[in-house]
Amino acid sequence: MLYQCYTYDMKTAISLSDALYEKAEETALYMGIKRSQLYTRALEEFISKYSGKMITEKINEVYEKIDTKEFEPYLNVGLEPIRKLTKNDSW
């Protein structure tokens, strides 16, 4: 008899030092979750933090290419002129 198995999760193999493996085992046990869930959560958090850094770097690259000389008259305007300009705005 042939059984078909459909899974939405990707299985992968990774190499860890013995010390890191033991810490992961202890942490998963402490948290009451499976080891694969611990690795998934850790990887998601790492990617999330790194992704934010990549986005910031891309934004900085764009801003480096912008000629800010045309904006210089507006840089040190202060709040009062802005309040006057927006006093009738319905926010």
Question: Features of this protein?
Answer:
elongated, mainly alpha
User: SSE string, helix = H, strand = E?
Assistant: HHHH
Overall, the morphology is: elongated
Major beta sheet summary:
none
Question: What percent of residues adopt helix (DSSP H or I)?
Answer: 55-70%
Proportion of strand residues? under 5%
Give Rg in angstroms.
26 Å
Measured between the Cα atoms of the first and last residue, the distance is 68 Å
Helical region count?
4
Q: pLDDT under 50 segments (min length 5)?
A: none
Main structural class: mainly alpha
- The counted number of beta strands is 0
* Average of the residue pLDDT scores: 85
Please outline what is shown here.
This protein is 63% helix and 0% strand. The chain has four helices and no strands. The chain has helices at residues 18-31, 35-65, 72-75, 79-86.
Give an overview of the whole structure.
It is a single chain. The relative contact order is 0.05. The model has no long low-confidence stretch (mean pLDDT 85). It contains 4 helices and no strands. The termini are far apart. It is an all-alpha fold. The longest helix has 31 residues, at 35-65. It has helices at 18-31, 35-65, 72-75, 79-86. Helix 1 crosses helix 2. The chain has a domain at 18-66.
Topology:
Elements: H1 18-31, H2 35-65, H3 72-75, H4 79-86
